[in-house]
Amino acid sequence: MWTLAPDRRTLWDAAGRRLDPARRTWTPDRPPPDGLPLGDAETVRWLQRESGSPCRPPVGVIGPREPTREQEAMAEAVGAGLADLGLVVLCGGRSGVMEATCRGVASRGGLSVGLLPGEDWESANPYVTVPIATGIGVARNALIARAALCLIAIGGGVGTLSEIAFGLQFGKPVFALAGAPKVDGTVELDGWDALLPLVARVVLAVHP
Q1: Does 198 map to a domain?
Q2: Tell me, what's the pLDDT at 208?
Q3: Same domain for 110 and 136?
Q4: CA-to-CA distance for 42 and 194, rounded, in angstroms?
Q5: What residues have CB less than 8 Å from 32, skipping those under 6 apart?
Q6: Residues in CB range of 178: below 8 A, 6 or more apart
Q7: Could you tell me if 107 and 25 lie in one domain?
Q8: Range of the domain at 116
Q9: Residues 6 or more apart in contact with residue 107 via CB below 8 angstroms
Q10: For residue range 80-114, what is the model confidence (pLDDT) as tens digits?
Q11: How far apart are CA 178 and CA 156, in angstroms?
Q12: How many angstroms separate the CA atoms of 48 and 35, rounded?
């Protein structure tokens, strides 16, 4: 799906377009015949760690404070997967899906940002890398949706539903896993293997 130049400085997509990493834009071009084929994960890692111009906006993960075991396990796996790609993860910074996600990020040495509703940064779960006490209550849901490159909803109730709605209103891709609220405009998926190629396309700014 992706082709990297032998010197590892230039990337092409399957449509024969060359990436400008700094602008995350694509220009029609022809990949070299001796180019290196890469999978989705390898390509995002190249962008984040080798290109010199990583995608800086975070990927948002949202979900309930009282998840099922399946949802908690899914959140931890998603957090670990995003960190493995070199992506920054944004969440609400508290318990449940948020804590499981941050635990997964921490297990891979990644970076997580928690936007907390209250005024005390110490209310963050112990795995958040950067806790930010907003002091604006549930209005922080809109900040998460606005700041994220895309949203990954894992389970959830009314609070998660509000973040999904904000994300769709702001034109952000929203991916739904493990019983997330069903809303027109979200993309329902089974797990990380199905999520990875879609996150890669968002990070690499690949549009049909």
Answers
A1: yes
A2: 62
A3: yes
A4: 16
A5: 3, 5, 6
A6: 68, 70, 71, 74, 154, 155
A7: no
A8: 59-203
A9: 76, 79, 80, 83
A10: 999 999 999 999 999 999 999 999 999 999 999 99
A11: 9
A12: 19
Q: Does residue 54 form part of some domain?
A: no
Cα 161 to Cα 1: distance, rounded to the nearest angstrom: 33
| Residues 21-42: tens digit of each pLDDT | 999 999 999 999 999 999 999 9
* Closest among 102, 94, 91 to 62, alpha carbons compared: 91
Q: Are residues 67 and 9 in the same domain?
A: no
* Whether residues 98 and 189 fall in one domain: yes
What residues contact residue 88 under an 8 Å CB cut-off, 6+ apart? 56, 57, 58, 59, 110, 111, 112, 113
Whole-structure pTM value: 0.96
pLDDT band per the 50, 70, 90 thresholds, residue 57: very high
pLDDT digit string, tens, across residues 45-55: 999 999 999 99
Do the strands 112-116 and 89-91 form a parallel or antiparallel pair, or are they unpaired?
Answer: parallel
Report the pLDDT value the prediction gives residue 165, as an integer from 0 to 100. Answer: 97
Strands 11-13 and 2-4: antiparallel
